[in-house]
Amino acid sequence: MAQPFDDAELGALLHRIADEARQDFAKGQNLGKVADYIPALAAIDPNKFGIAVTMVDGRQFCARDALEPFSLQSISKVFTLTLALELVGDELWSRVGREPSGTPFNSLVQLEYEKGIPRNPLINAGALVVTDAIVAAAAVSPPIKAIADFIRVRAANPTIRIDDVVAQSEKAWGYRNAALANLMKAFGNIKSPVADVLDTYFAQCSIAMSCADLSRAMLYLANAGIDPQSGQRVVSEQRARRIKAIMLTCGHYDASGDFAFRVGLPAKSGVGGGIAAIVPGRMSIAVWSPALSAQGNSVAGTIALEKLAAAAGCSIFD
Ligand code: GLN
Question: CB 3.0-4.6 Å disulfide test: which of 21, 101, 153, 304 passes with 119?
Answer without folding.
Answer: 101
